[in-house]
Amino acid sequence: MKIIEREELKTKLDRGDDFKLVMTLGELAFQAQHIPGSINLSKMGDIESRLQKDDEIVVYCSDQACIASQAAYIMMEKEGYTNVRRYAGGLSDWSSSRYELEGFSID
Predict the structure, then answer these.
(1) 23 in any annotated domain
(2) Given CB 3.0 to 4.6 Å as the disulfide criterion, which of 28, 72, 74, 105 pairs with 24?
């Protein structure tokens, strides 16, 4: 599994690189909290309609142990997506660095 680290992802976002940042958790989780610039593709039909096989794609979910991004990565590879990486730290790692998150707060 190809991995991208937090600082490389932050640099790519800050530069405005052309890639797809995909949160693999469900719609409600996405609405609650996600990395700015992310799209939510929690269904296979969404993936096929919004991503091209040669897009640069980074998938993530909540944290290192979350299997949603792992499953999405494996499925995308099997479906012929050629440039997929996983941000394994996910939301937990991102927020621990005090980087911005979007969504609503329930505080």
Answers:
(1) yes
(2) 72
Q: Are 77 and 57 in contact (CB under 8 A)?
A: no
The tokens of 63 are what?
Answer: 């944290």
CA distances from 79 to 44, 53, 65 (A): 10, 8, 23
Q: DSSP 3-state assignment of 39?
A: strand
pLDDT of residue 39: 94
70 domain residue, yes or no = yes
Which residues, at least 6 apart from 33, have a Cβ–Cβ distance to it below 8 Å?
Answer: 91, 95, 101, 102, 103
Asked, for residue 106, whether it belongs to a domain, the answer is no
- Establish if 101 belongs to a structural domain: no
Residues of the chain with confidence (pLDDT) below 50? none
In one-letter notation, the amino acid at residue 22 is: V
- Provide the whole-model pTM: 0.92
